[in-house]
Design brief:
about 120 residues; alpha/beta; Rossmann fold; 4 helices
Length: about 120
């Protein structure tokens, strides 16, 4: 599965490593501008987006809203990471979006990714 990770901290590098070890193709973008560029690449969007809620140049929720407004990515599965949440939850936006609090357990992360991949 092709996964785009938009995360500006060491967590992003850890996620890329974990995803690659689990057999996924993972790309890391360290801010919203680079992330949006990768999302709108002519090759097409990834199969899963892992998005940090707080980025140096963007609010992850705003980026998610922008993504949902684009018909090419309206139903892209998204895992949003945030230090504000304490457990996983779904956003009530009618899409395949989950929220996972930081710090997170790697097995819980794998379970959420697996669930999003199955759609």
């Amino acid at each position: 599965m092709r996964v785009l990770v938009i995360e500006d901290s060491q967590v992003g590098r850890l996620l890329r490593t974990v995803l690659e070890r689990d057999g996924h193709e993972a790309v890391l973008a360290e801010d919203g501008t680079e992330g949006w560029r990768r999302l709108t690449d002519p090759a097409g969007p990834p199969e899963l987006l892992i998005l940090d809620r707080m980025l140096p140049d963007a609010d992850g929720a705003d980026l998610l809203a922008r993504l949902r407004a684009d018909s090419r990515m309206a139903m892209l599965p998204v895992l949003m990471l945030t230090a504000a949440a304490r457990s996983s939850a779904s956003l009530d936006d009618g899409t395949l979006t989950r929220v996972l609090g930081k710090p997170f357990d790697l097995e819980e992360l794998r379970t959420v990714i697996s669930g999003l991949a199955e759609g």
